[in-house]
Design a protein that fits this description.
alpha+beta; 4-stranded antiparallel β-sheet; heme binding; iron
């Protein structure tokens, strides 16, 4: 006889069920998975749009980049161009837009593990 999981699997209070209930992921378009994003970042394309230059960004300049087509976010004093990442973000564009053109450090800390997330963006400052 096959070992078929019961309807109580995972257990009602298990971490597997709790994690799924609190998720806010959105369906991504085909070709927009995490692996697709990693491939794109390794492709050598200029995702930041700065041709490898570092620029100093003022609060006024940051505030100008607040649309889905031109979105920069500051996290812990570093500015990231998240425009190319919009379609790849597991929480969807709306989540990134909450911090568009502003300091999103507090929002970022509420949502994700800050140790690994920034590596997916291209640093501007």
């Amino acid at each position: 006889m096959l070992n078929v999981p019961s309807s109580a699997f995972p257990a009602p209070a298990s971490q597997q069920r709790v994690a799924l209930a609190g998720r806010s992921k959105v369906p991504l378009k085909p070709g927009r998975s995490l692996m697709d994003w990693i491939r794109l970042t390794k492709s050598g394309k200029d995702l930041a749009g700065l041709k490898g230059r570092l620029v100093e960004v003022t609060e006024e300049e940051l505030a100008k980049h607040n649309t889905k087509d031109d979105c920069w976010i500051c996290i812990r004093g570093l500015v990231y161009n998240v425009t190319p990442y919009m379609e790849y973000h597991p929480g969807g564009e709306d989540e990134l837009m909450k911090a568009a053109g502003a300091d999103g450090t507090d929002l970022f800390d509420q949502v994700t593990a800050a140790k690994w997330y920034p590596r997916f963006f291209r640093k501007l400052f």
